[in-house]
Design brief:
single chain; alpha+beta; Alpha-Beta Plaits; two-stranded antiparallel sheet; two-stranded antiparallel ribbon; 21% strand; globular; Ferredoxin
Length: 70
């Protein structure tokens, strides 16, 4: 299985722009005002870093989806 999608989900909490995700994985995340996921990134190349960002997010607003075909 591989990560195929990453997004900001503020349905329960809001991004506090702490920058922890950008520190964990600057290739995928950027925090100008609020966290954004960079476009055109092959998430499979940064899976452990993405999971570190998810774990380090104090607001728990980073979500991801895995593929079923691997």
């Amino acid at each position: 299985m591989a990560i195929k999608k990453v997004w900001l989900d503020e349905s329960e909490n809001e991004c506090i722009s702490c920058g922890a995700c950008e520190v964990a994985c600057p290739e995928v995340f950027e925090v100008p005002d609020k966290m954004i996921v960079k476009s055109g990134v092959d998430f499979s190349q940064f899976e452990s870093e993405i999971l570190d960002a998810v774990d380090s997010c104090p607001s728990e607003v980073i979500k991801y989806e895995m593929t079923d075909d691997e």
